[in-house]
Each structure stands twice: as structure tokens, then as C-alpha cells.
Design brief:
alpha/beta, Rossmann fold, 7-stranded mixed beta sheet, 3-stranded antiparallel beta sheet, 26% helix, globular, methyltransferase activity
């Protein structure tokens, strides 16, 4: 289950979340990733987890055969559903990424998660991959995008715990601060974690973001 701290933090940030995509120094990298994800999702029946405000859903949906975008927060889905989609093939639903219903045969051919992996503790990552395989179906394409730590652009890391998870202090809408998990894995760490659960791992990085694609076992 997604931790209450993380769920509540993003529920409060629903109306301002997309400000993170406005940084001038990240625009070229964002456009690069948008095109890569649209190409990967082309003609796929996609289940998206932790879709948030639908920022990425709107970018890749035109190339997908269908999209079922999910999030644990209704506040996020309310915003996501106001976006512009070119067909009626995009649908939304409440779902916790750790409690996805088992996919029916052929129901999905791909799973997408944007900026989720960094918020999952290291000790929960293997379980998450199993849940994604269950929710998307074995043999489905899995595509993840997330942040690279860039000094001067990223929020500073506040601490590291005994398991190696790193944390940042984030500002809430009410002015209070909350500590959230934000991990920045290396390619070797990603490959080591994913290898038992997937095949055909491919990793791409630009300055601000990394993209991983693979096939769920």
C-alpha cells in the first residue's frame, strides 16, 4: 500500500503538481522523453499507475490503442479527466499500485509509471514489480520514467536511512514541511533490482530524467 504520508502529500499538491514541469532548464529533456514514451506506447493497451494529474497520459494517449489511467488520489484523477484526449479510449479509475486487480488475458499489453519508482522504498521494490506484473499481465511492456539528481535543480537530499533510501523535505500547500522518499538509482542498481522480475532491460538517460523499458515476466 502507498504510504499515507506520500498519498496525503500528493493529494494536497494536486492543483500545483505540474509546476515541476515548468523549469526552463528541463524543457528540452522533457520533450525528448515525451516523444520516446509516445513511441513506446504506440498501439498498446496501456494501464498507467500513479497517473497523477494526467500530464503524461495526455502526452502518450494519442499513440496508444487504449489507456486505463489509475491513481490512489481522487483529487488527482479529477484533474486528469479534464485534460484533452483525442478519443474515448482513455478511462480512469482509483487504484493503489500495491493492490492492483489481476489483469485478464490480453487486457493490457503495456504498463506505464511516471515518477513513481523514486518514491518506493528499496525494500518494497521487488514487491512492486510483482504487483505490476499481476496488474498488467506477464509479457507486458513496462515503461518507467523518473528524475536524475541534478545539483542546483533538484531538491537537496535531507537524509539517508539504514536501507539506503534517500529523503527530501517538501513544502505542503499549508506551508508545513513533510519528508518524503526520493531515491535516485544508478543504472547498475536498476538492472540488479529488475533482472529477476523482467527481461530485455533498456535504460536511457538525458540530463534530468531516466527512462527504463522492459518486459514483465
Amino acid at each position: 500500500m502507498i504510504e499515507n504520508t506520500m498519498r496525503d502529500y500528493y493529494a494536497q499538491r494536486a492543483n500545483s503538481l505540474e509546476q515541476i514541469y515548468q523549469y526552463p532548464e528541463r524543457q528540452q529533456d522533457l520533450q525528448d522523453m515525451q516523444q520516446r514514451i509516445a513511441d513506446l506506447m504506440k498501439n498498446h493497451k496501456v494501464i498507467e499507475v500513479a497517473c497523477g494529474t494526467g500530464y503524461w497520459t495526455e502526452k502518450y494517449a494519442p499513440s496508444a490503442e487504449s489507456v486505463y489511467a489509475t491513481d490512489v488520489n481522487q483529487a488527482m484523477l479529477d484533474i486528469a479527466q479534464t485534460k484533452s484526449y483525442q478519443s474515448d479510449r482513455v478511462h480512469f479509475g482509483i487504484a493503489d499500485v500495491f493492490d492492483l486487480p489481476e489483469a485478464k488475458a490480453g487486457e493490457y499489453t503495456a504498463c506505464f509509471a511516471g515518477f513513481l519508482w523514486s518514491h518506493i522504498k528499496r525494500e518494497q521494490q521487488t514487491d512492486l514489480l510483482a504487483k505490476l506484473s499481476r496488474g498488467a499481465g506477464k509479457g507486458s511492456l513496462l515503461v518507467l520514467i523518473d528524475n536524475i539528481y541534478v545539483e542546483g535543480s533538484s531538491t537537496p537530499i535531507a537524509r539517508t536511512d539504514a536501507e539506503g533510501n534517500t529523503y527530501q523535505l517538501r513544502m505542503q500547500e499549508d506551508g508545513s514541511r513533510v519528508e518524503i522518499v526520493k531515491n535516485f538509482p544508478t543504472d547498475s542498481a536498476l538492472r540488479k533490482k529488475f533482472a529477476p522480475a523482467v527481461r530485455d532491460i533498456r535504460i536511457y538517460r538525458n540530463e534530468h530524467y531516466w527512462l527504463l523499458s522492459c518486459i514483465l515476466k
